[in-house]
Amino acid sequence: MEPFTQLKGIVTLLDLPNVDTDQIIPKQFLKRIERTGFGQYLFYDWRFVDGRALNPEFEMNQERYRGARILVTRANFGCGSSREHAPWSLEDYGFRCIIAPSFADIFYNNCFKNGMLPVQLQEEQVEQIFQRVRQTPGYELAVDLVDQTIRSEDGLKFRFEVDGFRRHCLLNGLDDIGLTLQYEAKIGEFERRAAG
Predict the structure, then answer these.
(1) Interatomic CA distance for residues 175 and 142, integer angstroms
(2) Which of 26, 27, 112, 136 has the fewest CB atoms nearer than 10 Å to its CB?
(3) Which pLDDT score, from 0 to 100, does residue 191 have?
(4) Sign of the Cα pseudo-torsion (44, 80, 67, 133, in order)
(5) What is the mean pLDDT, run by run of 10 residues, along the chain of 196 residues?
(6) What is the CATH number of domain 6-195?
(7) Dist. CA 95–CA 100, nearest whole Å
C-alpha cells in the first residue's frame, strides 16, 4: 500500500448527503476479482447518460474538476452495504482523500485499509470549502497527515483528528498484510520451533 503523508490536489464536489455504496459503485460491476478497474464505474448512474455519454448535469464531470485527487461531499458518505469495492473505485478513479462532515463506519474503516484518507470536518467547514471551490476553477487543497491539517493558498486552514493507529498505518503504507509482515521473522521462528 502506498504511504499517505501529504497530498496537494484539485478538489471536486459531490453535493449530496447519504451517498450509499451502491451509488458509489453499482452492484452490476462487482464481478471483478481484482482491486483495479473499478474507477471507470464510479458514480456510474450519475456520471453517464444511458451508460455511454458523460452527463453534463453531473457537477463532477465539468472540465474544471479533471484530475481531482480530493473529493468533498456531504454527511453520511458511504452508507449502505459494506462493499470494499467503494473505496477501491474511488481510489482507482484517482482520489486519495475524501472530506465530509460524517462517514458510515464500515466505509470509513475500509478507506484506511485501502490507503485512502477520510477526513471528517464540521459542516460549516465543509460548506466553506464548497463555496471556495465553486468560486475558483482548479481550486486546490493541501492535506497533511503528518500535522493533521488542511490548507489552501487563499488562507483556509483546518485541523482534523485521526486515530493514532490508523494514522501510523497510512503514514507507513501498512495494510493488514503489511502489519503482519512486520513480524515475519518472529512468525518464521515460531514455525521452525513448532515443526522441530
Answers:
(1) 24
(2) 27
(3) 77
(4) positive
(5) 95 98 94 87 95 93 97 97 92 97 97 96 98 97 98 97 95 81 74 78
(6) 3.20.19.10
(7) 14
Q: Classify each residue of 71-98 as buried b or exposed e, where b means 16 or more C-beta atoms within 10 Å of its C-beta.
A: bbbbbbbbbbeebbbbbbbbbbbbbbbb
The rounded distance, in Å, linking the Cα atoms of 134 and 136 is: 6
Return the number of other C-beta atoms located less than 10 Å from residue 143's C-beta.
24
Q: Measured on CA atoms in the order 81, 85, 91, 93, is the torsion positive or negative? A: negative
- Of 74, 102, 95, 127, the closest CA to residue 25 belongs to 95
106-111 contacts at long range (C-beta below 8 A, 24 or more positions apart)? 106/78, 106/82, 107/21, 107/77, 107/78, 107/79, 107/82, 108/78, 110/78, 110/82, 110/84, 110/86, 111/78, 111/87
Cell numbers 452492484: residue: 27
The three-state secondary structure class of 117 is: strand
Q: Dihedral of the CA atoms 41, 97, 6, 156 (nearest 10)?
A: 130
What lies within 8 Å, CB to CB, of 41 at 6+ separation is 25, 26, 29, 89
